[in-house]
Structure formats: C-alpha cells, structure tokens
C-alpha cells in the first residue's frame, strides 16, 4: 500500500517520544509491547521507531487491559481473533467478486 493511499490513522509518522506523551506509557513499556508483537512500528532510515494514530489507540487499549490484569499473550490472542474473521470475510468478498466478474464476462449465468 502506498503512503498516498494509506489512511491518515495508519501512517507511521509519530516518534516514540510523542507516543509516550500521548499515552502516558514509559518508553520501556512501548518498546516491550512491540517486542511482544502487540504493535508493529515502522523504522525510518536512521532506525527510529515510527507509530501511527492507530498504534496509539491500540497502546491505550493494551494499557487498559494490562491494568485489569490481562497478560500480554492473552491480549495478542484476542487481537488475532478479532482480525481473522475480518480477513476471512474480505477474502470471501474478493473471491465472490472474481467469480462474478469471470462469469459475467464469459457467460449469461447469473452472478453468485
């Protein structure tokens, strides 16, 4: 996905210092959540981490769950469960669109 088509919330342009200020988390906590594969910052050419507004929202959500006593591995499992149905639905819609396009162009059959 090119940066021009990336929604502003997903553009990785925010430094870790700003993320710290916005979330109230320590630098160590922010880095730790990245190490635990809960967030995925980009790195610029100098190796500096860059975060998005979506990452900040996710960090706040993670911090709230941690305060409730939820372990990071449970948070990661929950996050994976949330994304998989969306990915499956998108794949199903893409396949349906491909089938419809194929059969509309190659026959008089009704689309699926």
Automatic annotation (TrEMBL):
User: In this protein, which residues make up the domain named HTH merR-type?
Assistant: 13-81
Q: May I ask which residue range the UniProt record assigns to the signal sequence? A: none
Recorded GO MF terms = DNA binding; DNA-binding transcription factor activity
Family annotation (Pfam families): MerR_1 (PF13411)
Keywords (A to Z) from UniProt: DNA-binding, Repressor, Transcription, Transcription regulation
The answer to whether UniProt assigns keyword Transcription to this entry is yes
Q: Which SMART domains match?
A: HTH_MERR (SM00422)
Protein's recorded name: MerR family transcriptional regulator
- The scientific name of the source species is Fictibacillus arsenicus
